[in-house]
Amino acid sequence: MKRLVCGTALAIAVTMPVATLAEGNLASDATRLEDMVIDSAALTLSVNEFELETGQYYRWRIVHDGGEEFQFMAPDLFRNSWVNQVVINDLEVKPLGLHSVEFDDAGTIDIWFVPIRPGNYDFYVPGYEERGIAGTFVVR
């Protein structure tokens, strides 16, 4: 009986996933992504695809020229990321979750986040996707 219990314990220990521990602070030294500029006159984005890695800390800057009011959405990315902060005009917001950000005028919004789950995540301005204000985060 004792041998069976030891063998079972060994089989369980071998098949269980090993916990991985992060060394240091994941929310330090953010990798700055290329600034994404929304050109409201041309209805274009300066960047339409970002390649990211899970567990990396990123700073995403969205710049709007103020020509038209836009709600910028990336709900699936935000749902599958830890969002540390959102900075608007040097004012920091520490959200529990994030669905979208909106520009009423010209300005810059920085979003600091760590993607947690791999996948392809769309970002867009609702109603303008087919006109060019859309893109994808590819998270590996």
Automatic annotation (TrEMBL):
Organism lineage: Bacteria, Pseudomonadati, Pseudomonadota, Alphaproteobacteria, Rhodobacterales
Keywords: Signal
InterPro entries the record matches: Cupredoxin (IPR008972)
Protein name, per record: Copper-binding protein
Entry annotated with the keyword Signal: yes
Signal peptide region: 1-22
